[in-house]
């Protein structure tokens, strides 16, 4: 069974960088697929952030691309997200997920990141 | 990229069927058979209910079905049950090599 678990600070100050890691178990990242991030601001809908392949090839939401960095570490079987210059609008529950062209079939439980001083 | 268009809410009585629409463009919904649907109960993570327009993942009830016509995809829930009350989101791959979600639909079981 494929399992994903997000980790990272729950509180980030405005203008700083939000960093999250997603640890994957039950599947080797080096075997393929894209792995991505989705977020959901409190009381709002879902937003796709970006996805990365096991080789480091990335797809990014154009609205976030200038602030977004994604990486993958196949030796640790995890992938990461960095979002710079955050504001209160970046406050959300962040989910990591396995990305198929036709849907996200496995995802983590989500982690709330609050941007506040 | 613009979000896909979903009705804000739909409702139905137990045992009835409802359909949620998801309208995009020829650059996303209409251009690819890569539409998915997610169910989200309050405080829970979204659950994949349909992928690739009409495929059900293992463990998803066959009361849930998906289809597509032109630039509009649809999720049908038949034999409504109280546990189906939730928010539903559609998503599609796009020609820009990105994914886009719909705004979400709140399903109320009367």
Element layout with pairings:
The complex is a heterodimer of chains A (117) and B (110).
Chain A: E1 3-7, E2 11-12, E3 18-25, E4 34-40, E5 47-53, E6 58-60, E7 68-73, E8 78-83, E9 92-100, E10 103-107, E11 111-115
Parallel strand pairs in A: 2-11
Antiparallel strand pairs in A: 1-3, 3-8, 4-5, 4-9, 5-6, 7-8, 9-10, 9-11
Chain B: E1 9-12, E2 18-23, E3 35-40, E4 47-50, E5 64-69, E6 72-77, E7 86-93, E8 99-101, E9 105-109
List SSEs of chain A in N-to-C order.
EEEEEEEEEEE
Count of runs of 4 or more consecutive helical residues of chain B:
0
> Poorly predicted ranges of chain B (pLDDT <50, ≥5 residues)?
none
How much of the sequence lies in strands of chain A comes to over 45%
* Major β-sheet profile of chain A: 7 strands, mixed
Your description of this structure?
The complex is a heterodimer of chains A (117) and B (110). Chain A is built from no helices and eleven strands. Chain A is mostly beta strands. In chain A, strands 2, 4, 5, 6, 9, 10 and 11 form a seven-stranded mixed β-sheet that branches. In chain A, strand 5 (47-53) and strand 6 form a beta hairpin. Chain A is globular and about 40 Å long. The mean pLDDT of chain A is 95. Chain B has 110 residues and is mainly beta. Chain B has strands spanning 9-12, 18-23, 35-40, 47-50, 64-69, 72-77, 86-93, 99-101, 105-109. In chain B, strands 1, 3, 4, 7, 8 and 9 form a six-stranded mixed β-sheet that branches. Chain B has a three-stranded antiparallel β-sheet with strand order 2-6-5, with no helix packed on it. The mean pLDDT of chain B is 96. The A-B interface holds A 36, 38, 45-48, 51, 59-63, 95, 99-105, 107-110 and B 1, 3, 32-36, 38, 45-46, 48, 50-53, 55, 57, 89, 91, 93, 96-104.
Please give a handful of descriptors for the protein shown.
heterodimer; A: 117 residues; mainly beta; seven-stranded mixed sheet; four-stranded antiparallel sheet; B: 110 residues; six-stranded mixed sheet; three-stranded antiparallel sheet; 9 strands; globular
